[in-house]
């Protein structure tokens, strides 16, 4: 699952996009993925239908996000649980690796919400 973190005025929203392009980690259909995320991880944020994030069939949102803040990651997603932080104007503020803990992003989110 890949995450797109969105800020608007004074709120914060997590949007999750399941993807099965990384080692077959999310092979189920959309309903199975949603059930798994909600029961196993208590997900309380929108989980969208499964998408491609790399390649010719990449979802439009990822075609926008990836080059906006590629840096050392380049223009591709390397693995599930990559994260993007987007401000209320729709600008990509930062991109986080799959191993970045959600708690370590908290300071960046608070700074944008201030």
From TrEMBL:
GO MF, one annotated term: peroxidase activity
GO terms under biological process: response to oxidative stress
Keyword field contains Oxidoreductase: yes
Stretch forming the signal peptide: 1-16
A cellular-component GO term for this protein: cytosol
SUPFAM superfamilies, A to Z: Thioredoxin-like (SSF52833)
Keywords: Oxidoreductase, Peroxidase, Signal
Record carries keyword DNA damage: no
InterPro entries according to UniProt: Glutathione_peroxidase (IPR000889), GPX_CS (IPR029760), Thioredoxin-like_sf (IPR036249)
Family per similarity comment: Belongs to the glutathione peroxidase family.
Protein name per UniProt: Glutathione peroxidase
Origin organism lineage: Eukaryota, Viridiplantae, Streptophyta, Embryophyta, Tracheophyta
């Amino acid at each position: 699952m890949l995450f797109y973190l969105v800020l608007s005025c004074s709120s914060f929203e997590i949007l999750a996009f399941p993807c099965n392009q990384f080692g077959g980690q999310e092979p189920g259909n959309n309903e199975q993925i949603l059930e798994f995320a909600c029961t196993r991880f208590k997900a309380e944020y929108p989980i969208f239908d499964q998408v491609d994030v790399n390649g010719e069939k990449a979802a439009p949102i990822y075609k926008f996000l990836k080059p906006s803040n590629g840096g050392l990651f380049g223009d591709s997603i390397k693995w599930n649980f990559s994260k993007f932080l987007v401000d209320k104007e729709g600008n990509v503020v930062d991109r986080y690796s799959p191993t970045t803990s959600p708690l370590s992003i908290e300071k960046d989110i608070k700074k944008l919400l201030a």
